[in-house]
Amino acid sequence: MPLTLDRRQFLTGVLGGGVATGLVRFTGLSSLLSIAEASASTVPRNGPFVLCTLYGGNDGLNTVIPYESGIYRDWRQSLAIPGDQVLPLGDDGSGQLGFHPSLAGLHSLWKEGKVAVISGVEYPHPNFSHFASQTIWQTARLSADPDAGWLGRWLDATGTDPFRALSVGPTLPPALVGYNQQASSVVDSTQANAQLPGQNPAFTGAYKQLMKSFPGEPALQAGQANSGGNLMLIGTKAADALSHEQPPAAPAGSDPGDIGTQLDIVAELISYGLPTSVYSVSWSSFDTHSNQANTHAEMLASLDAAVTGFMTAFPKAAPGKSPVIVICSEFGRTPKMNASLGTDHSSASVVLAVGPAVKGGFYGATPSFTKLDPYGNLIFTTDFRRVYATVLEQILGMGSVSSVLDGPFRPIDFL
Amino acid sequence: MLSVATNPALVAHLYRRAGFGATPAELDDLSRKSWTELVDGLLAGLTGPDPAGDAVPLPHLTTLPESNVPGYYYNSWEEYSNLVNWWLGRMVVTDTPLREKLTLLLHCQFPTSITKVGWAYMMYAQNHIFRTLGAGNFETLVQALAKDPAMLIWLDTDTSHRDAPNQNFARELMERFTMGIGNYSQEDVIQGARAFTGWELDTVSGGFFFNSYDHDNGVKHFLGRTGRFMGEDIVHIVTNEPASHRWVISRLWTWLAYPVTPSDPIVQDFVHGYAKDLNVTNLLDAMFNHPAFVSPQSMLGLVKQPIELLVGALRVLGLTTAPFSPGTLQGLLGAIGQVPFAPPSVGGWGWNEYWQSTGAAAGYMQLASSLAGVANLTALENADGHPADQVTAALSLIGLPDVSDRSRSAVTSLALSLRQSSGAWPAQQIVTLALLSPEFAMN
Q: What are the respective helix, strand and coil percentages of chain B, to the nearest 5?
């Protein structure tokens, strides 16, 4: 049973806690706190921003459901969610919409005015490849060529502090990798019980020396050194943050990689006041090509529990503690059900923004159900880069988004 | 033929890229051979016997008929862990390192995950296809993989039907496996998907089954051709496209030398040869003998994937997977993000910077510490003399005699301070730190 580490073991393992604790205990926090104070001015009024990426292509039509539409029921046949099970949101101008029945917690938050439903979000000329579409979303560039991520370019433009952006998970989403800077990450799963030598201050001191790149060091080798150097900075602070909290025990059998655990870690780090403006969590796979009904219901239920659990830590807006979770996916799914009782890669979908400072309501516009593209996909109404512009301007405090988004994009007024 | 000795640094490079690294003792021996002898020896291993690898006992893996269980789910976590240990074990001891390396690279090229497939046995069967067909004709390999039960489940061919073809396999076949984005249209995906309808998994035998009643045998318009194409025809067409030649070459070069796109000029150097017969062995031969393979760009062009780093570390430490309980190495790799048989998606794992997050750094610390804790380091423990000499011995052990001053002095400062506080020679911590040197992460 590899996935039954208790919460405390998990968090300590995760953050290289043995190492970090050693540092906290033996080397003092002064230098690290000075880093934190230096970056305190970057803590925004809104925020931090929490990017929640659902990989695989989440089915927008069965997340925010046009349940009174006959066209929707024809498309979806047995996958259509009956109107009496849908959690009603009201009419956005296109007709009545409602949440999937798995989203009861988000429905309550909607009623409190803390959820923005942004409809019809995508980019021109849809690309039905996961990788191309993920690349477009992550780079905010339409070429689909691998390139610096949009948050990576924000990192490039704002200094070198490794606390600015933190990703939960062992590998970084490309969105958070810039030309020169990248986010730091904390790992979200460990099944190992290694005795870390990091309890020993001599070891951590030598490790820091080892992981310091030198002038002229080959780029990849220097990158390796910097990953270890940044681990020392991040691990120390994060372990200190977590040692101040007594989190509730995780439910038995929960997977440390699941979205709930990831958001729990983020909630603790925000509550502690880490000077971090951007957090990233992600989850897969929403690629429901076959037998979609149960899988999708279960994934949405887990997402719902994770987001509502997270939000209990932030009941109302407070400086530096008004997180805005933006939930997005690389594309929606084909309006028509396929013969495997699933749906295929498609285009426009729904983005949700959740947080104590979010102005709840409908944004964007639900696409037409009668005017489709040649392949029968919905046609987008709202460019995804407008969501990013909102984040960059109103959470990250950028005066002009053009340098990051290669042009002006009008923010959406959900904050 | 008279042997001409080869520069040990180049031999080490070749054996890291074409295998999982040579130990210092192996290097002494190998460096007496010429480059041609070395490459030919590695290539011969692609089809030659592998007594040491074959001696690693395959764990019991339940087959579908044996299970009597309909439907798919993790048939056993234990079998999965045992399978991971088995393959890692082969990589460590193999007599034919290039074949195991190619098997790994093909897993990276055709990433398939047990999290959806559910059956450890099927993952093993796919792994066997990589090992036995990987070095031959590329089309033959892809034809086998298209009907491979794990692949049928992974990309939904199994649940695709004549009335509503599932596009998943047809798309990834072109996008990830054979040609790359930009060389086909959405219409080609739709048409190609029709050709694979009726390709099913026989839930009794666990093998491939062609259901002609659920196959769309109509005329398809695919990549500018028209015909009553079957799935086999589609595989034949895509693997013989010029775009596929460039794609396959660029992927292999990316893992063996340095990352390139299909339009990189270096790719053109191999196109003529590869297009003749789609033979992977000949392509590898051409790559290892290309001057750019030993260029500075190549020598500094890759960091090890976590699996490569783990296997290389086990080898230099004189370890096999035997001392580790099933699940241990799997867990250590999981903390870094690369567990065999469980890639994150059909996109597989990335390379280089992808493995250089702070999270991975924490995982590597656990990994290095665990391996050094198990290794027999008594030879180092008993070494007399100045800590600087002992550091040299430790660095030589792991194949890094020429590290930077930065790394040498960091390891030396640890040795000095531990000596001062304990009076002993704590080889375990020294070797742990040495394994974490940025130089060791370079492939």
A: 60, 5, 35
In the predicted model, is pLDDT for residue A414 greater than 90?
A: yes
B442 lies within 8 A of chain A by CB: yes
Question: Does residue A238 fall inside a structural domain?
Answer: no
Q: What is the CATH number of the domain that holds A325?
A: 3.40.720.10
Average confidence (pLDDT) over B416-439 = 87
Global pTM reads: 0.76
Contact A2 B414 (CB under 8 A): no
A359-370 mean pLDDT: 96
ipTM of the complex: 0.94
Mean pLDDT of the residues in chain A: 82
Considering all CA atoms of chain B, what is the largest pairwise distance in Å, rounded to the nearest integer? 81
Mean pLDDT of A99-116: 98
For residue A7, being part of any structural domain is answered with no
Range(s) of the domain holding residue A390: 47-197+256-405
CB contact under 8 A, A189 and B334: yes
Q: What are the chain B neighbours of A170 within 8 Å (beta carbons)?
A: 335-337, 357, 359-360, 363
Q: Which pLDDT score, from 0 to 100, does residue B69 have?
A: 62
Rounded mean pLDDT of A230-239? 71
> Residue A312 and residue B274: Cα distance in Å, rounded?
60
CB-based burial label for B246 (10 Å; 0-12, 13-18, 19+): buried
Question: Which has the closest alpha carbon to A55: A138, A168, A139, A140?
Answer: A138
How many CB contacts within 8 angstroms connect chain A with chain B? 245
Of the candidate ranges A182-186, A402-406, B117-121, B270-274, the one whose mean pLDDT is the lowest: A182-186
Q: Is a pLDDT exceeding 50 seen at residue A305?
A: yes
Contacts of B442 in chain A (CB under 8 A): 218, 220-221, 224
Distances (CA, A) of A178 to A35, A81, A140, A166, B357: 21, 41, 12, 14, 13
Six token digits for residue A125: 């000329």
pLDDT (average), residues B145-161 = 94
CA distance B45 to chain A (A): 31
Q: Is the pLDDT of residue A264 over 80?
A: yes
Query: Between B156, B332, B442, which is nearest A192 by CB?
Result: B332
For residues B201-211, give the mean pLDDT.
89
Give the minimum alpha-carbon distance from B316 to chain A in angstroms, rounded to a whole number: 20
Does the distance separating the beta carbons of B370 and A285 come in below 8 Å?
Answer: no
Out of A36-40, A75-79, A153-157, least confident range: A36-40
Please give the residue of chain A at the shortest CA–CA distance from B297: A218
Q: How many domains does chain A have?
A: 1
Rounded Cα gap, residues B172 and A289, in angstroms = 13
Q: pLDDT band at A175, cuts 50/70/90?
A: very high
- Domain annotation covers residue A355: yes
The alpha carbon of residue A186 is apart from the nearest alpha carbon of chain B, in Å, by 5
Q: Is residue A160 a part of any domain in this protein?
A: yes
Closest approach of chain A CAs to the CA of B227, in angstroms? Answer: 22
